[in-house]
Amino acid sequence: MRVADDSDMQVIVHGGANRIGGNCIEVSSRNARIVLDAGLPLDALIKSATPAPAVPGLFGPGRPVDGLFLSHAHADHSGLIAATQAEVPVWMSEGTSKMLLAGSLFARQPEVPRNRRRILVPGRPAAVGPFRVTAFPVDHSVYDAMAFMIEAAGKRLLYTGDLRFHGRKPGMVRHLLDVAKSAPLDVLVIEGTRLGGRENEPNLSEQELETRITADLRTATGPALAMYSPLNVDRFVTFLKAARAAGRTFVVDPYQDFVLHLISRQTRLPRPGSRSGLRLMVPPRFGASGAGKRLGHTDWARRLGDGAIGAEEVRQAPEKYLVLYRQSMQPWLFPDGLPKHATCFFSYWPGYLEEERLRAFVAQLDTAGGQLLQRHASGHAHPDELRRFVEEIQPRSLIPVHTTSPETWRRWWPEAEVRP
Fold this sequence. Notes:
alpha/beta, 7-stranded mixed beta sheet, 6-stranded mixed beta sheet
């Protein structure tokens, strides 16, 4: 679908219009082409479908596109990497590369082959044919997400990827605004996940979420379980701070520990240890698992020393801990079934609760007299914040993506290019 046409720059939205996720946006100039993201639609993630848009030179026959740029490591933006042509270089931030590595090891997500990786340094332009592409950090629910400023033939295009304004890093959006306003912006390709009837939903910040979870933990009498993505480093910080404030020790798994290891040079986050209020619980036979073999650690507990904790220790005094939890852990962590009066914090998009496996988990939790608390801060901007963002930038043209309600933008911004 062609949504903007100029003799110097053309923009085609192959995926991400009128739906959440599945972003795949082609930008061309002077016979060169780059593509922004290669994602699975959100409904495909839930239904396990794997469609690929017909993009010549990326998913199908044709001269390979000159570069694929990934905004972040969520599957609705990067889930179709494995279907792309092997000749296409893939550009991303260092953190996105690391999150894709962790996701491939622990969550069966695709990884970019080493020979195709090209690392973007935030604020430093990369030249690809006639394009000058600069990455700028944005606050989202995965580590090291980026927006892209694309310049070619005297035109400027800003692609926001996914972003929010209520996270732990407000300085990111202020810097992005300064960059966008430094010269006239010809095209703004912007997400709108929460448009269309979601204006009145809660817009908790990470700090407000932390306060709420802390209060919940202080009143919980039994086991406390946290369900969230280990790639969401801000959410890890939220749960860690809440656990400490409530007098509990936060217990994580090798997936989260590996993410912390990967970003240890870029952050000051703690690693598991008896003095950090953070412990690591390793599944039985983890060293023989696919992730364990690739990482080369056959005995994680011995490697960690006092940072390790066993399942039996957690079961003996569950009121002392908050445990990062997945349903696959139950057979060895709770072999007799979920303990009574457990409190489970569900910190994902609520729509995932419609999946059959999660419905079964909630029913099991209810049977045990436990409670599921939906405690989530969205990774996406509130509509009011998006509108203020656009009003400050004043783009000449606006292309809405990653939304089921693109027509909302036309009411706010006459220059919005909305196509079916």
